[in-house]
Amino acid sequence: MSNSFGAKKSLSVGDSSYTYYALEAAGDVTRLPYSMKILLENLLRREDGAVVSRSDIEAIVHWDAAAEPSKEIAYMPARVLMQDFTGVPAVVDLAAMRDAVVALGGNPEQINPLAPAELVIDHSVQVDHFGSDDAMGKNAEIEFERNRERYNFLKWGQMAFDNFKVVPPDTGIVHQVNLENLARTVFVDQDGVAYPDTLVGTDSHTTMINGLGVLGWGVGGIEAEAAMLGQPISMLIPKVVGFELTGALPEGATATDLVLTIVEMLRKHGVVGKFVEFYGAGLDHLPLADRATIANMAPEYGATCGIFPIDDETLNYLRLSGRSEENIALVEAYAKAQGMFRDASSVADYSETLALDMATVVPSISGPKRPQDRIALTDSKAAFSKAVATIKAEAGLSSSAVTTQMGGREVTMQDGAVVIAAITSCTNTSNPSVMLGAGLVAKKAAALGLNSAPWVKTSLGPGSLVVTEYLEGAGLMEPLKQLGFHVVGYGCTTCIGNSGPLPAEVSKAISDGDLAVCSVLSGNRNFEGRVHAEVRLNYLASPPLVVAYAIAGTMNIDLYHDPIGKGRDGQDVYLKDIWPTQAEVAEAVASVSREQFTKSYADVFAGDANWQALAAPTGDRFDWQDDSTYIQNPPYFAGMGKEPGTIGDIEGAHVLALLGDSVTTDHISPAGSIKADSPAGRYLREHGVEQKDFNSYGSRRGNHEVMMRGTFANIRLRNRLAPGTEGGVTLHLPGGEQMSIYDAAMKYRETATPVILIAGKEYGSGSSRDWAGKGPALLGVRAAIAESYERIHRSNLVGMGILPLQFKEGESAESLDLCGHEVFSITGIRAGAREVTVTADDRSFTAIVRIDTPKEWEYYQHGGILHYVLRQLAGKAE
To answer: Residue 810 half-sphere exposure, CB side, CA atoms within 13 Å?
Structure first.
């Protein structure tokens, strides 16, 4: 390292001494935003004159807040975080790369994480059982039965790879475990060098850790693998939007209401590709758990990150959550030495600014299809009525009510019935104020004799063992159970579509009554078709409101004026009768203790008896089993040579899918249950798997054969190439035969016909799914043309060798009169090209190339980022 600024210094903290790279050595950085100081330190410490130059460092020191991003830097996070749905395919790829590097003349040990990598198994537990004390135990038992192959594979990976640790199942949700235990805030390497803890994660809500002053964001699995293997992340120095918070939340409002308000404001402002940084006097009244809630939903407001600086509240949380006093002292000393500790005098320059007086926040929900669509609770009944009318018309549903027997009595279910009420996901389960608030609502409701409606599937999925500890300590677990909110497992559950089956009588009522029913969840993934196949409207709400809607049993209610139910005395009960005051919530939060954290995380990597009993394979290369339907050696590196091919034009392509606006990675990437009559279902049956053992797409991400068959198979996908259909249906051209997208892709492959995708605005929004890039690549997709892209998905397309193109401003498939039946050619594709010519039959138009950096062009030329890394490593062995 060249250290041309002489920034290498010594920092004494108590009896310990550390090396650090002083920002002030690079120049006057007092007015740089906190997040920019983290980027500056990253470059300053890694300056080598090649990957990181002196001019790179100076570009941040002299950062022009108003300038459009244009300067590329090589950023290297301190560590990588994964969950099991995205982590299993990442480890599968690493195992495949070990085989491939041997084929290219290298050795297996060259494929090994250089940066610490931690994986938390949290995406596999499903709500098969609920509403009983043994629900969690039964769900955990089924989880291990379904996922034994995957878990064996991960245990092999933990032993085979250095620098790779696994947090076993039934411990907690990845982002909450990261916040409460894994995050260092200030990292210390083996040489005693101290620097900001930074990370990338294979899940979009990695940003939750920004609440702790740690810079992190979600990337595709392929990018994360490259980072693990020592490849820096190529990025443009971003704009930083400053968001000033003042005041404090009013009585009745929660952190969930605050974040939904912020999401709405930032979405409207436009922060895609930008950093967001929170500042202002309001931070003095904002607990760290509330900060983490706001940071968590950065993907919903579209930013790369939503970060809070280190301050006294950060230190308080580190102490509460069981971090060592040595670590806390280092965090404080380091942040103050670097001018990164927030106090009353802290000022910074920002590219743009917004402001919110938190006293103006009102109770809110969002939905019914997207987490960013906020609805004030006062408007919720009217908004529901409008949404349900539209959805019923679209789906051709006619009836609106059905009378049936449930729980030994006759009940009437109507449109808007809440059939799933789930306290779930990292967004809110990390926050004691809303979790204890839910418990207080349950306590007041139970005392009045209220219960959940009989058709509601209730569940409580705590984000960590700590939540159970403090709910029990506050005497609030029993009231939650009285309303049916028993613990069903420690994982994401409903938020990722693992809601499990509805009771048979509820499913029958939905079908018989032609009903449009609802879910209410505290998780942020209320996308269309995500929560449950039979549920058409999905709403995000705070945990206390989830309990309230479970009692009401319907979304067709004005919670301000309509009774929520009748008490045991026969009198109407209103929401205001069971809603806790801020003082009551604060008293409950004050009971949360450091001991509850230290007990819960005493041996976080050990796992329970089920995990410990797993007999994992050994060896530095994985022994692939041909008959496995969970883990298969992917074909990405088959026939790969030591040198990349040349970049060429795309000729004679057909459209595989013509898509509209807001097509999410849930529509693209296989997720949820596997239908028996789908291509993936047929594949599993052909391989001897009974339907009851299909498990979910997410659990089978380690098998490319299942995943490529499930790509674009979402039940709510609407392909305009096959109008009037829902699901993964298309036309095979030029004949026009209707078939599944997978089957059409295979027919195109037989004739060596390239295929492309056409889409509208915000293509690929939602979770950071690498399979949204891998699946199309395996289906033969060579290019996508969209009006705009979500950040991670665009990067994933490049990472899989797919060319992302963008219509020019004001142009679209509609304006250009593209029907999808045309034969397409794309010419002018060459390294560094900013535009190409697209020809559709006898018409041509210009499209913008969204390969944004020179490094991404290298990845594209090599056929993808993993191919690039593999060739680099194999070359070092020669």
So the answer is: 0
Instruction: Set out the domains of the chain in order of their start, with CATH numbers.
Output: 1-101+108-125+137-237+310-345+593-640 (3.30.499.10), 364-592 (3.30.499.10), 650-669+711-862 (3.20.19.10)
Instruction: Look up tokens 């001018």; give the residue.
Output: 339
- Check: CB of residue 411 under 8 Å from CB of residue 455: yes
Query: Nearest Cα to 413, choosing from 425, 423, 424, 404?
Result: 404
* Cβ-based neighbours of 751, under 8 Å, separated by 6 or more: none
Instruction: Report d(CA 775, CA 792) in Å as an integer.
Output: 15
**How many alpha carbons lie under 13 Å from residue 518 in its C-beta half-sphere?**
31
CA-CA distance, 373 to 526, in Å (whole number)? 10
Quote the tokens at residue 536: 């058409």
Task: Dig out the tokens for 564 from the structure.
Answer: 């929520």
Average pLDDT over residues 436-464: 98
Q: Are strands 537-540 and 518-521 parallel, antiparallel or unpaired?
A: parallel
Measured CA to CA, the distance from residue 874 to residue 642 in angstroms comes to: 8
Residues β-bridged to residue 410: 405
Q: What pLDDT score was predicted for residue 220?
A: 81
The pLDDT value recorded for residue 792 is 79
Whether the predicted pLDDT of 878 surpasses 60: no
pLDDT in tens, 464-491: 999 999 999 999 999 999 999 999 999 9
Token output for 388: 């349900």
Is pTM, for the whole model, over 0.85?
yes
What percent of the chain clears pLDDT 90, i.e. is strictly above it?
86
DSSP string, 249-274: PPTT--HHHHHHHHHHHHHHH--TT-
Cβ contact 100:637 at 8 Å: yes
- List, in sequence order, every residue forming a beta bridge with 233; answer none if it has no partner: 75
Share of the chain above pLDDT 70, in %: 100
Of all helices (H) and strands (E), which one includes residue 324?
none
Write the pLDDT tens digit of every residue in 225-244. Answer: 889 988 898 889 999 999 99
Distance CA 8, CA 23 (A): 10
